Amino acid sequence: MKEGDTYDFRHFYTCNISVKRDFLFYETKWFDTDFIYAAFEDVELGYRLSKKGLEIVYQPQILGYHYHYHTSWSFSKRQYKSGVMSYLLIKKHPGTICVLNAQVKRLFNLLLHLPFAQKSYSVDFEERMWKNAIRLISYFESYPNKTVDYLFLKVLDYSYYNGFIDALFKEKSIHSKIRYIHYKQYLRPAIKYFYREIANEDDKKILLQHGFGDAIV
């Protein structure tokens, strides 16, 4: 981001933003309370205001300090909830797809693989692998290196998209199959790469202890 440049509604972070009163005065509501989790409620407001001419200008000298302590578990949960709310944003405002298209691209890829998914699989298999992955990054929390950082980002990203998938497909018959394909296409390759890149044999055994034997063969 560059000083003085303007940015779209995705950067409407209410943790540190100032808005002219006129933009808010005529709004029938500010935050939409349908966003039950602390995610995307500010972006949604920013989107509505942008339709009325709001521009976001970046000023780096205006600082806001926030401290939120998270563990691997709590941040994965936060990412999941963010994914749920991102679906709600798109549902309420289809026009946001043009800039929030990463979710749509991943969804399209998963649907392309749907006809080729194996017919037999455990319904709770993906859920178990997801939780195992969070346990795994919890174990490696104190390991400061790029390989571990890679896995952290992949698991957090996976958690986010699981939230989006659940919000969209929870009541549909293909829900569990979509989650399984998501594991096969995104989480499993990340685990396999992580196993290949870590040098310590004891660390490799940790992956087996966390139930990822299928991912590293």
Automatic annotation (TrEMBL):
Gene3D superfamilies: Spore Coat Polysaccharide Biosynthesis Protein SpsA, Chain A (3.90.550.10). InterPro entries: Nucleotide-diphossugar_trans. This is Glycosyltransferase family 2 protein. It comes from Bellilinea caldifistulae.
